[in-house]
Amino acid sequence: MSWERAWVESRNDPLKFANGVLGVPMPGEPKNARGIEPLEPWQVKVFEAIRDGHLRISVRSGHGVSKTATLSIIILWFLLTRTDVKIPVIAGSQDQLAQTTWAEISFWARHLPEPLRDQIEVQAERVVVKAFPDEAFAVARTASKDNPAALQGFHSKNLCVIVDEASSVSDEAYEVGQGALSTPGALAILMGNPNKASGFFYRTHTDLRDRWWTLKVSSEEVPRARHHIDDIVKAYGRDSNTFRVRVSGDFPVADDETLISLELAEAAVGRNVEPMSVMPVWSLDPARMGVDRSALCKRRGNVVLEPTKVFQQRDTMTLAGLIVREYDDTPVDDRPHEICIDSIGIGAGVYDRLEELGLPVRAVNVSESPSIDGRYMRLRDELWDKARQWFEARNCVLPKDDALISELVAVKYGFTSAGKLKVESKDELKKRGFRSPDLADAFVMSFAADDRQRHLKDRHRRTPQRSGSPWAA
After folding, report:
1. Which CATH superfamily is domain 3-253 in?
2. Domain segments of the chain: what residues?
3. Which residues contact 386 (CB under 8 A, 6 or more apart)?
4. I need a surface site. Which of 61, 131, 205, 300 has the fewest CB within 10 A?
């Protein structure tokens, strides 16, 4: 394919632009005639995410994996495939922008086909389309706590916000930038080393990750980045925060008393484990009509079987009917031996109706005293700690469920004056600006049931009751 055709077809495909226009080889191919290294698999994933329509992208990584090269290619692609374009390029320091970001943009601009290269001009702090310098440009902006207005005033038909070394940009700057990101179709891309376990960049990988397409890139995955690993290990050790941040692409171990760390939760996704030979447990956290959600989790021992099911705006009887349908649609051998239901409030009515219909339900009052006296304030605290221990065993697996992970890693804990563990309540989370952890509470409640060995003869079979009511259909 000619570069001209690739350029025409790359409006929504930065991968086609990188490969077909700039001539960057695909992973596994040799260097091109100009000595350009092939794309890394992680870069392809990012380009494909943009092609597939993701508008919020956040990538954390170790050093040397070609983050800035990736951003530079995206900037040139966006600028040269649209009209009426504005691209604020944000970093926490002027040195980062001038010495790293703009130098990399200049490098890739020189590798454009000459007719495209002649259309743009790389200036000290801007890249402009020569024919429309005031309507189509990328501009460098420094953002800090003292200068939060870097993203202010950007509105355009085609807007792309680029943040390089995103951990270094202040929360105040991100807050100001919310106005720009309200532009329909605006693209936002954050990349950086995960230098701190707090701030907006951290949140895109934790409690906001269900709204952002996220990726972690370890230096150990990228051959060209491995040269510094031995030096880091020798100087700091593999268990150090320096290794976590500069090699693994993990946030430093947080000191903010998060009960279940992001590292533990992410490591469980898709892990290859031997499933336990036990019967499934379902757990339901019912919610009243409103913004909170009813959530259903299905776990079989060390495996969460599927992403959490969420039901909104359902009254008691409708919710009971949905669980009946879910149960009846499940093959007999895969049905749970218990369905744990939070029996506080609306959950009491759901429990009563499901018990009446013959389902194997168990009422769980999470405000009750724990089973282990002296260690926990109440049963909810004990169940959350059991969930933490489930992750720490590192013999468990989650499906890809960003909404669940974002809630699990948002919850903090503390200790009472008597030394009892106390997990943050829903109300306390809401005061910190987080939504109710309905999915996480449903998952945690599954630990109220014990694992039961799988014996098919013990399977609970129910004769469905039929009535004229649609919720019991």
Report:
1. P-loop containing nucleotide triphosphate hydrolases (3.40.50.300)
2. 3-253, 281-472
3. 444, 447
4. 131
Residue whose pair of structure tokens reads 């050093």 in the numeric block: 63
> Residue 200 has which token pair?
């907006």
pTM: 0.73
Name residue, tokens 């604020």: 88
Distance of CA 61 to the CA centre of its chain: 14
**Residue 151 is encoded by which pair of tokens?**
């993203």
Quick one: tokens of 35? Answer: 């000595």
Do 3-253 and 281-472 have matching folds?
A: no
Is 465 exposed, middle or buried (CB count within 10 Å of its CB: 0-12, 13-18, 19+)? exposed
State the pairing for strand pair 126-129/361-364. unpaired
CA 61, CA 275: separation in Å to the nearest integer?
Answer: 31
Q: Please give the structure tokens belonging to residue 108.
A: 């890739």
Distance CA 48, CA 157 (A): 22
The model's confidence at residue 430, banded by pLDDT at 50, 70 and 90, is: confident
Pick the CATH number of 281-472 from 3.10.310.10, 3.30.420.240, 3.20.70.20, 3.20.20.370: 3.30.420.240
| Rounded Cα gap, residues 283 and 67, in angstroms | 41
Q: Which two tokens stand for residue 57?
A: 């992208």
The span from the CA of 423 to the CA of 70, in Å, is 41
Q: Report d(CA 396, CA 303) in Å as an integer.
A: 6
Helix (H, G, I), strand (E, B) or coil at 238: coil
- Which of 20, 22, 77, 12 lies closest to 48, judged by CA? 12
Query: In angstroms, how far is the first alpha carbon of the chain from the final one?
Result: 57
CA distances from residue 362 to 12, 108, 267, 381, 467 in whole angstroms, order as listed: 51, 62, 31, 19, 24
- Closest listed residue to residue 435, CA positions, set 198, 212, 207, 131: 207
Contact 261, 205 (CB under 8 A): no
